[in-house]
Amino acid sequence: MKTVNTIYFQDESMDKKDRAILDLLKSNSRLSWKEIGEKVFLSGQAVGLRVQNLVDRGVIERFTVAEHYPSEQFITIYMDNSRFAEFEQLVSSFAAVQAIYKITGDGCYFIHASFAAQELEQFLQQITLYARYKVNHSLRKVL
């Protein structure tokens, strides 16, 4: 059996039951409230109330499916101008962009994408009007 130790900083008001519920949902979001309740020693109704509370507080942003992509890129953006809104609109128009983050540190934005090779080249050509970039490709998912 594999054990993973994780430190969470996002919400100190979560108790151990909330954390256990969240961890179970992250590993299998198709579990019913009753199935989760059996694992954390709560009723299904109590689990449902706790999950709704986590949603209301913004701890859970959405329920989704993790899709496997044959090609993934992590692109660091270094803006050459201050046309941020235009740039964000352009990047958001590409279906292969999974997420875009405004960041501190190395770069201005961080983009997680799943472009095919030819699509990536077209994307990069368009963003050169706004920025320089550094592209890293995923070899394999570790965790």
Task: Report on the biggest sheet.
Answer: 4 strands, antiparallel
Helix count, DSSP H or I runs of 4 or more residues: 5
Rg (CA only): 19 Å
How do the strands of the widest beta sheet line up side by side?
2-3-1-4
Supply database-style keywords.
single chain; 143 residues; alpha+beta; four-stranded antiparallel sheet; 4 strands; elongated; disordered N terminus
Describe the secondary-structure layout.
Blueprint: H1 16-27, H2 33-40, H3 44-56, E1 73-79, H4 84-92, E2 97-102, E3 109-113, H5 117-127, E4 131-137
Helix pairs in contact: 2-3
Structure description:
The chain has 143 residues and is of the alpha+beta class. It has helices at residues 16-27, 33-40, 44-56, 84-92, 117-127, and strands at residues 73-79, 97-102, 109-113, 131-137. It has a 4-stranded antiparallel β-sheet with strand order 2-3-1-4, with helices on one face. A hairpin with a 6-residue loop joins strand 2 and strand 3 (109-113). Helix 2 (33-40) packs across helix 3 (44-56). Residues 1-11 have low confidence and may be disordered.
Summarize this entry quickly.
The chain is an alpha+beta fold.
